[in-house]
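Re: [ENG-882] Designed sequences occasionally contain unexpected residues at chain ends

Forwarding the minimal case from QA. Structure tokens:
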């Protein structure tokens, strides 16, 4: 029993009462008991127990009864910490210890009383967490790699990412300590303080990379949305904002090439409303105040928008596929639909997939709430399979149906459609509002990680403003001078992948095997080879031609 656990229990058992009329007693419980169903902050009377939970004859004894019951709960919970998963019912608090009025029937409420989640919820949580901005860049990355490397790399990176995440989970389940709450703490316990620092630094780095990508995309969505509305009102064809009826199909090649539809916009409106010079700054007015909110509770209510966005992109690809049909040719290099089987830029896809399959810093937080821990490895595998299929479906389908030269595919495939395209306009609206709700959460987690690692405390109001200004300033700089999300994603994924997908999981596995006396030469050679693959992936990113 370490000092941390003693302090944790002492703080729970020895909470200072807010009502000084109650003297401190053994197994003391705070007098400011809160009933989550019927009480309010202003309700300080003993009658707080008389409604919703059941009327009692001796109301004045209720605070001490509640303290005693809570103390019993802590006592049994402390004993249960040594219980093994196979006997999870051992030392559960007996029913006769729990007052009968704790069992409150709530109609249509199906959440489990043990606070755990089913395998389906766990798999969905993993899938939803891994789904990110890589979806919009996946067709571009496939074009960079070529057809054959794209298929092989998707399978290989999904397998490697699953394997190292599986090893993290295996070490965590073998270690079994109530004080290990996440991956960084596990690194500290087994490898030392330096490993925790490395884990926190690179976790913050990948959050910053995701924030930059979000800012670039939100600037793009905001620009095109306003541009669409402006064109509908003014119908000024001199700006290049033609209606979809003026084109054989709604696909375009904004980056140039034989199929380029790019028309410079020099009118007065676009001097003010410029994608790279002004819109990233206008976005500060929207997201600046939201990013300084100290509590993320409000934004977590919109997590379902991520699932809605992915579902809409799937429908979007299917609809465009029905319009364009399959456009691919492997034999005639002069054909607009020619698709090379291999290109020398394949590392771009490998770097992007390192971020696309990134779940390692939060896999423990998700999996530890699974009701059936014995199913954790199966659920993890199923989640990776679903994520791989999603990337295959959206990225591969768009690559197959794109009607122009494949080199025209943008790192945000929505840019391959004109602002006046209704399906694209709707996609940008949905994704913009989804990212507006996620970005403050990213900055909140980033502030907490940075500030707590330095001060060991949550950031003050001044620190919130300063850190938010710094991070938003970095995002704005990238959106103005380097708005290439494909490059940002692949470099961020490659460098963080070296640490989180390979280095730290392999060291944790080595340490665990060494502790149980099962570290073999074969294991060392195999895992060092994996680490070399991660380093090679990062090095090859510098050879990719954007």
């Amino acid at each position: 029993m370490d000092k941390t656990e003693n302090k944790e229990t002492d703080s729970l058992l020895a909470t200072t009462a807010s009502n000084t009329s109650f003297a401190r007693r053994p197994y003391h419980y705070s007098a400011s008991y809160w009933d989550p169903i019927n009480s309010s902050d202003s309700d300080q009377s003993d009658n707080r127990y008389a409604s919703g939970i059941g009327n009692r004859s001796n109301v004045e004894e209720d605070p001490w009864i509640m303290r005693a019951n809570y103390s019993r709960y802590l006592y049994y919970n402390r004993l249960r910490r040594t219980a093994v998963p196979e006997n999870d019912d051992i030392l559960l608090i007996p029913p006769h210890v729990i007052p009968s009025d704790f069992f409150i029937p709530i109609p249509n409420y199906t959440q489990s009383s043990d606070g755990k989640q089913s395998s389906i919820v766990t798999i969905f949580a993993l899938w939803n967490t891994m789904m990110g901005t890589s979806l919009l860049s996946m067709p571009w990355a496939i074009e960079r790699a070529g057809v054959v490397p794209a298929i092989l790399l998707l399978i290989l990176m999904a397998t490697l990412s699953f394997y190292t995440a599986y090893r993290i989970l295996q070490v965590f389940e073998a270690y079994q300590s109530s004080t290990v709450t996440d991956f960084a703490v596990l690194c500290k316990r087994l490898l030392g303080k330096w490993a925790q620092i490395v884990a926190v630094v690179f976790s913050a780095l990948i959050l910053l990379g995701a924030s930059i990508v979000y800012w670039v995309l939100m600037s793009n969505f905001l620009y095109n949305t306003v541009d669409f509305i402006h064109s509908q009102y003014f119908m000024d064809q001199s700006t290049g904002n033609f209606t979809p009826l003026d084109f054989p199909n709604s696909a375009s090649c904004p980056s140039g090439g034989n199929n380029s539809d790019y028309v410079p916009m020099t009118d007065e409106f676009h001097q003010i409303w410029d994608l790279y010079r002004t819109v990233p700054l206008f976005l500060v007015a929207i997201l600046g105040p939201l990013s300084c909110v100290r509590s993320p509770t409000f934004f977590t209510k919109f997590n379902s928008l991520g699932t809605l966005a992915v579902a809409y992109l799937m429908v979007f690809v299917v609809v465009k596929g029905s319009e364009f049909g399959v456009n691919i040719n492997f034999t005639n290099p002069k054909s607009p639909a020619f698709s090379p089987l291999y290109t020398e830029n394949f590392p771009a896809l490998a770097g992007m997939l390192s971020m696309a399959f990134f779940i390692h810093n939060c896999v423990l937080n998700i999996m530890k709430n699974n009701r059936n821990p014995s199913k954790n490895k199966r659920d993890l595998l199923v989640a990776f399979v679903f994520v791989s299929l999603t990337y295959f479906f959206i990225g591969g389908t768009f690559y197959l149906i794109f009607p122009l030269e494949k080199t025209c595919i943008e790192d945000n495939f929505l840019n391959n459609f004109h602002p006046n395209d209704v399906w694209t306009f709707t996609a940008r609206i949905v994704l913009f509002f989804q990212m507006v709700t996620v970005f403050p959460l990213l900055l909140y987690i980033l502030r907490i990680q940075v500030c707590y690692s330095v001060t060991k405390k949550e950031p003050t109001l001044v620190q919130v403003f300063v850190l938010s200004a710094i991070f938003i300033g970095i995002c704005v700089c990238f959106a103005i001078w380097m708005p290439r999300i494909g490059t940002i994603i692949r470099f961020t994924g490659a460098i963080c992948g070296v640490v989180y997908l390979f280095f730290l999981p392999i060291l944790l596995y080595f340490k665990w095997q060494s502790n149980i006396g099962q570290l073999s030469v074969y294991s060392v050679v195999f895992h060092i080879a994996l680490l070399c693959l991660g380093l090679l992936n990062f090095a090859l990113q510098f050879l990719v031609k954007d």
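QA comment: On inspection the terminal residues look reasonable. Confidence is low (pLDDT under 50) at residues 1-61, 95-111, 237-248, 257-262. Proposing we downgrade this to a documentation issue.
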